[in-house]
Every structure is written in C-alpha cells, then in structure tokens.
C-alpha cells in the first residue's frame, strides 16, 4: 500500500536529482518567476476592479474570498501535507493557481468577466493555496541545515517581495501595450515555470519521530493535532496570538491601500505601481540583509523589533500625502518584515520536529491569520461608509484629523492607516511583557535534541 502520494521511490531517481541547498535554490528561482507573474496580474485586476466599481468594498471582498479558504482549510491541508509528498502538494497548489488564472483569462478575453468571478476564482485558488505554506515550510526544514534556516527564510522573503519591485511597474506599462489579457497570459506561463522547477529536484521525506508516529491516526485526528500541540506549549500559542493581534490591525489598513492611493491621486495607476514597487524593494533589501546576516542570535528579539518598526512604517504611510512619502514609508515598512517573519519561522523550524510541521504549521497559520478575513470584511464597508464620508470637508472627523491626514477622497482610508499603525506599535511593544513569549527559546527545547526513529518502509 502506498501511503505517501507522489513520493519519489527509486533511489536512482533520488540520486540523479539536485538536493539540499541547490534544490532549494532551483525551487526558489521558479517561485520568483511565478510570483512576478502573479503580482502583475493582481495589479492589473485591482486597477480593473477599482475602475468598474469605485468601491473599496469590492477590492476587500476579492481579498476576503481569496484568503478565507486558505485560513479555514489549513488544518486539513496540514494533515495531508504530513501524509503526502511535500513536492506533490506544492505542484498541486501551483496547478490550481494556473487553472484559476486560465478561467479569468478566458472570461476577460470573451468579454464576460465580472467582479464576482474574481470572488469565485480567488476562493478556488485560495483553497489549494492552504497547502502551499505548510508544504513549502516543512520542505525547507528537510532540505537545508538548521544554521541555514534564517538565510533560507530570507531567500523566501526575497522571492515574495522581489516580485513586487518590477511587477507593478511592468504591469502599469503593459496595461496599455498588451492589456489585461496579455498580462494574464504571462502569469500562466510563469506558473508553468514554477511547476517545472519542482519536477527537477528531490525533496526528502522527514525522519519519523516518536511523537510523529504517536500522532498518526484518522484525518480528523491529524487535522486537530496541531491545535493540541500548540495549546500544550503556551510559548508557541502566545507567539501566534501576537501575530493574530497584529494581523487584525494591519489588515484593517492594507486592505484599502490600493483604493486609498488611487483615490488620492485621481486614479493614477503609475503612482500605485511606484508605491508597490517600493514595497517590493523594501522587502528585498530586508531579505538580503537577513540572508547575509542570518537574523539576530536571539530570534524572539527579531520578532519584537521587526514588528514594532514595521508598524511604525504603516503609521507613516497614513500620514503621507505625496508619492515620495508613501513610497519611502512603504519601503521602510517592508524593510523589517523579513526580519519579523524570518525570526519567527526560524523559531518554529527549530522547535517543531519536521514530520509534525505540516500539521503544526497549518494550525499556526490558522491561529495567526484567523483575524484577517474579519478585518477584510470590516475594512471595505468602514472605508466607504464611515471613514471616507467623515473625512470629507465638513465631515464628523475632519476637524479632529484633517490637519494630520488632510481631507477629500482617500483621506478617510489614510486615517485607517494611522489608527492601524498606532495599535500595531502597541502590540509589538507589549510582546516584551509576556514571559512565555519573551523566553520562548529558553523554555522550549530544539527538536533535534531527540534522535529520530527509523521510518517504516513504504511499499
């Protein structure tokens, strides 16, 4: 019976394919290319949706329907990641994204694309996207050594943010040359590149630990295992609740970033592209810094410091009234996000045994990002119906905050950034007050301290 779907079985095949850091780098290059295409199509569709609706709520709903399945399906996805080949799961996720993009391409090409189609295709790709994070994170743990975790996290962040540097600018330029259909076609090709990269590498199975073997059972048992694992370790639970809180407040602002910039600039897509490129540049510089540096020796300090400084950047975006200030503040914000995420990732990779990481990391994702869909649902309607009317000339909040963020279209959404940044700074600073989180690296032992059990032979 074969219990590992898609697992590479033949030793000769394993020996002929790239392994370790080389294999990780090949996958990473494929992801850089794929994410660039994704960012280009996302930019083009965001501009299209804003022009046909003129509402922040419509854009917020696209994010909600795309992101919600990723969060709520993640426990089951994590259990399947630990059962299946991580390579197979990553390819499956990429294939679903291709199908979703092809559907949008056909609808647009035939003149039938409507805003609700983006909700459906987003939900489809988001459901399969729930497998991507736990599979990718768990695969990295088995591919590189512990002392390379920080650098690998830096490279992953570089892939994510690097695509943001040129993709928005390219998309803004290509919108006039090849249109949305052409940009979607490019996105489809880049997905195929990512899948091809996965085909050519070997991703090893994790060694089976005693705890991993004891946790096996029905899909339901394995799906809820991550909750029990984190709940029994207050330090890990506290760390994720910190991310839960900051994701709640920061999503409140970032959901309306595109409509804010478009509203404040008279629908200037070039300014939106410049600011999004600055986001990517900040993330890349921070990722390069993390890749070279490896992060602080005490990882939890990287979490607290990165979080606090990034939230200060969110505050600055809200205070800005010109493309230069917005771009500079966006760069500053993302400069510290790789340190924040990379430090947290290194803690989890060191403390959780590799054969448990699919389930545990999926639950980790659910806890930290459960607040995001709710924040997305609130952000759009509050922007359209509360903050924007209140910050118009003579509005109820204009006298209090008009000198800070100005008035007119987009000012209400700028105020949302100021509120989110202020609350986010308070969340970051408060982390030092909780001993279980502050001393997480001392309280929890590294998983490598326990020798792994030999894996059973699969037939």
List the defining traits of the structure above.
mainly alpha, 79% helix, 459 residues, Growth Hormone, Chain: A
Please outline the helices and strands.
Elements: H1 11-16, H2 20-53, H3 56-83, H4 86-109, H5 115-143, H6 149-177, H7 179-199, H8 210-214, H9 219-231, H10 234-254, H11 257-264, H12 269-293, H13 299-319, H14 323-351, H15 357-369, H16 371-390, H17 398-405, H18 411-430, H19 435-438, H20 440-443
Helix pairs in contact: 2-5, 2-6, 2-7, 3-5, 3-9, 3-15, 3-16, 4-5, 4-7, 5-15, 6-7, 6-12, 6-14, 9-15, 10-15, 10-16, 10-18, 11-18, 12-14, 13-14, 13-18, 16-18, 17-18
Write structural notes for this entry.
The structure is a single chain. The chain has one domain: Growth Hormone, Chain: A. The chain contains 20 helices and no strands. It has helices at residues 11-16, 20-53, 56-83, 86-109, 115-143, 149-177, 179-199, 210-214, 219-231, 234-254, 257-264, 269-293, 299-319, 323-351, 357-369, 371-390, 398-405, 411-430, 435-438, 440-443.
